[in-house]
Amino acid sequence: xxxxxxxxxxxxxxxxxxxxxxxxxxxxxxxxxxxxxxxxxxxxxxxxxxxxxxxxxxxxxxxxxxxxxxxxxxxxxxxxxxxxxxxxxxxxxxxxxxxxxxxxxxxxxxxxxxxxxxxxxxxxxxxxxxxxxxxxxxxxxxxxxxxxxxxxxxxxxxxxxxxxxxxxxxxxxxxxxxxxxxxxxxxxxxxxxxxxxxxxxxxxxxxxxxxxxxxxxxxxxxxxxxxxxxxxxxxxxxxxxxxxxxxxxxxxxxxxxxxxxxxxxxxxxxxxxxxxxxxxxxxxxxxxxxxxxxxxxxxxxxxxxxxxxxxxxxxxxxxxxxxxxxxxxxxxxxxxxxxxxxxxxxxxxxxxxxxxxxxxxxxxxxxxxxxxxxxxxxxxxxxxxxxxxxxxxxxxxxxxxxxxxxxxxxxxxxxxxxxxxxxxxxxxxxxxxxxxxxxxxxxxxxxxxxxxxxxxxxxxxxxxxxxxxxxxxxxxxxxxxxxxxxxxxxxxxxxxxxxxxxxxxxxxxxxxxxxxxxxxxxxxxxxxxxxxxxxxxxxxxxxxxxxxxxxxxxxxxxxxxxxxxxxxxxxxxxxxxxxxxxxxxxxxxxxxxxxxxxxxxxxxxxxxxxxxxxxxxxxxxxxxxxxxxxxxxxxxxxxxxxxxxxxxxxxxxxxxxxxxxxxxxxxxxxxxxxxxxxxxxxxxxxxxxxxxxxxxxxxxxxxxxxxxxxxxxxxxxxxxxxxxxxxxxxxxxxxxxxxxxxxxxxxxxxxxxxxxxxxxxxxxxxxxxxxxxxxxxxxxxxxxxxxxx
Amino acid sequence: xxxxxxxxxxxxxxxxxxxxxxxxxxxxxxxxxxxxxxxxxxxxxxxxxxxxxxxxxxxxxxxxxxxxxxxxxxxxxxxxxxxxxxxxxxxxxxxxxxxxxxxxxxxxxxxxxxxxxxxxxxxxxxxxxxxxxxxxxxxxxxxxxxxxxxxxxxxxx
Lengths: 789, 157
Ligand code: FES
Ligand code: FES
Description:
Chain A is an alpha+beta fold and 789 residues long. Chain A has 3 domains: 4-29 and 459-600, 2-Layer Sandwich (Aldehyde Oxidoreductase, domain 4), CATH 3.30.365.10; 32-129 and 206-281, Aldehyde oxidase/xanthine dehydrogenase, a/b hammerhead (Aldehyde Oxidoreductase, domain 3), CATH 3.90.1170; 297-457 and 607-777, 2-Layer Sandwich (Aldehyde Oxidoreductase, domain 4), CATH 3.30.365.10. Helix content of chain A is 26%, strand content 25%. In chain A, a hairpin with a 5-residue loop joins strand 22 (461-467) and strand 23. In chain A, helix 12 (371-388) packs parallel to helix 19 (735-747) and helix 16 packs across helix 17. The radius of gyration of chain A is 27 Å and the shape is globular. The two termini of chain A are 52 Å apart. The model of chain A is unreliable at 1-5 (pLDDT under 50). Chain B has 5 helices and 5 strands. The longest helix of chain B is centred in the C-terminal third of the chain and has 14 residues, at 102-115. Chain B folds into 2 domains: 2-77, Ubiquitin-like (UB roll), CATH 3.10.20.30; 85-153, [2Fe-2S]-binding domain (DNA polymerase, domain 1), CATH 1.10.150. Chains A and B meet through helix 2 and helix 18 of A and helix 2, helix 3, helix 4 and helix 5 of B. The complex binds FE2/S2 (inorganic) cluster (2 copies). Chain B: Residues 1-77 form the 2Fe-2S ferredoxin-type domain. Chain B: Keywords: 2Fe-2S, Iron, Iron-sulfur, Metal-binding, Oxidoreductase. Chain B: It comes from Ancylobacter crimeensis. Chain B: InterPro entries: 2Fe-2S-bd, 2Fe-2S-bd_dom_sf, 2Fe-2S_ferredoxin-like_sf, 2Fe-2S_ferredoxin-type, 2Fe2S_fd_BS, Beta-grasp_dom_sf, Diverse_Oxidoreductases.
């Protein structure tokens, strides 16, 4: 399509105001939680009070007879199982409960208080069973199985090894690791790391309004993945997917929380049962209890390096707590190879990543997912290696970061020299580091530079562009605006640049699975890449049609026409021309309205055969790199860490809307600061999450933060349209790592766990806390694997 | 029991229990959904409305206590279709992301700038202690507020 290749990418670059800001600033935006309809019923969900138990009795008859109650649904109404990789997850607990907060029944009633009364009137009897709360419990000899029937589940994606409480295991093995460790010149460095869960604390809780009309479900929901909701809802309800329509109002924060089906099927079932519109909105307590958190994890990593700084070999075991059901963690086992196995050139490596079932709330996806803690572990480990061989940590990184042609852990060959020039860019941004260790006020000063590897989650997207006779265009996709501005700003920029019109003349259709084709969803930095590529292709088709009609009208060769600023003209000064509206309306009369469609999917970048097993993605289509630098001050008496300065060099391919990217970086870094310093989810011995709201789960406030200094690194190779890469997900990737390395440097002691709350840092300084002991990770790497049958 | 409330300058009747949180009356009874009940604990500030000109947490205010007072929500803060200087600056600085915290942010900043025409960045930072934002990382909100300083004198909206 020559029309596309002639699009000038720089025409798409601009700092554009967001079209949704005004309504958001005046309170007029209607998020899903704000929607109400005439005759609407209020729903509520009964949840398990126990982490593990057998359901002896569940009687809804008294509740159903209460005034105002219209419908009650239970496991009998939702026969299907869903999951990622493995179909292990029912909508309602059936026979057994597996975590505190697991749904048992749902009701719809006239008023919220009627629904609450009905929940209280449901009679339940659950016989407690022994629970495995920690991954150590789950992996102990003879441990209670969370899913005794694990072998009977339908496998949706082949290749992962499984056994008992090991929900999924992915390995990446390249080269002869034993030989590397056996070399006489090898210095061996080994570390263990542990991190807790992180709650997204999206301001809009998960919320849904469901209708049942003409034999079909219509679900309005706060989600990042309308097509997943459509297909998974159909699967649990046991109805054809074509009977479910999903539309998405503006979403009040996602960060990955809304990257899976959530409470939609409850409302859908209740709408069908009652014949009324049903609204269900999670309370903050429910969000805290059942948030699909970034998972807690435990890591052992071991490397063989030479005194000159060459990394000969590396092995690691990563345990990821998936909670009671596999969910996103099954997929995310893949990302260990590309994150913990990223950043550096390594001679030989073997990595295993295991998703472990426990009797706790399921975890999920959260901005850069396990990349955040794998990067923390790898970068802290790297600093310990540098120390062990007496090399400057920055010099070690310059020597070893991935460069053009280097191999990743799955044997993928990286293209282009990116990280090294980014380190140089950081040197310029930062200047010569100060050597200070103690500040004038007596606090301890620390600084660190870290590197990171992440990716753009590609996958299928579809777009349609309708050219209107008035010169405007309508973009129809299943993309959702979750707050990043990609849908409201990025995509219209791409379409407008292709069609030579103003971005404000591109109407963006709200996501609707009845109107637009399949899409993987908004997340993983994929919006401007995958949806952008589909939109570019769709707009390119429209452009071609417009040019052909204009060529006829102007009696010129289409190749000699320019299309910009709302006009199509014969190239050259004072060439004759027409407005795009004139051409579009002529085309409409002559040929019918002009439209274009576009699709995009993953390219399937090759890995080395035989390296990766159980991986959903063997190689990264679009790697994204980051270099972060952080300065902190630590109070030697209290252990309080203050952020003094933070700098980011981010690989963005091409910055379409630099101002929007800078906003994403500031926000992402601050979320990472919360993870590094204060956000803590703790799980009690009964399996209960102890933080119930904003008072106990503390996120960064305005007085805690600093303005992030940013340099956008452009020009690295990218398969993305116009050379772009996703920019919204990666800013959080290195923050835990950078803060931990800086704090370790400040206090002169290693850091192996996050978050670095004041008591934690104080204990480190007093020598009262050492690296986590992880006896459930075997010393010999191969002993950690599921034995092949 | 009928509550008599003055919301955005208009007298309104609500046949509700006086203990109903104001935020629920505004949202469910009057369809003014700008104020958001995000935490219901007084920590996030997304539910702030002006009561007699003071930013007030509507999640912790029983409707009965708001009777006879001037309640102003984000929808009625500035005349229809217009933005006040704080809102204007937030739009111009591209500060908004998901937007959920902004109804409350606008209340706090409007009030802070009415009180002090030339606040320092640090003073504004501390003024925002009761307004959590999960998306933006705050700095751009501060940039915007500083640029609007001085524009809110004379009790104008
Ligand atoms: S909802 Fe009122 S302060 Fe959070
Ligand atoms: S913009 Fe999302 S919470 Fe502030």
